Amino acid sequence: MSNKTTHPTQPVVVVNGVKRFKENAIVRFLLNNGGYDMNKLAMLQFSDEDREQFAQLIGYSLGGFSELSYVSDKTIKRVQKKEKRHGDNDTPKPL
Fold it and tell me: Mind listing the pLDDT tens digit for each residue in 6-20?
């Protein structure tokens, strides 16, 4: 058994009919006001796992998230499994 811990998966909500990870307002504020945009962050050395978590924290859509080059198949499967468990409901609620 591995002792490696992983970042938690953000809850999913529906915003204007699009399933998205629940945005963290502090992280979004820092992205919008901290002098770094997604392009600048892409040039810095971060682990793929941290990039996955960041995409979730800024409220990435599920469809777009699964297309990001740094998102692992394991993470995509975990998110899809969670989505299946909670059904296709348009009610905005966290998973």
Answer: 788 899 999 999 999
| Alpha-carbon span 45 to 50, nearest angstrom | 10
Q: What is the pTM of this model?
A: 0.80
* Total structural domains within the chain: 1
CA distance 11 to 83: 10
H-helix or E-strand containing 15? strand 12-15
As given in the structure block, the two tokens for residue 41 are: 């962050």
Domain span including residue 42: 22-86
The CA–CA distances, whole Å, from 5 to 2, 8, 46, 47, 70 equal 8, 9, 17, 14, 18
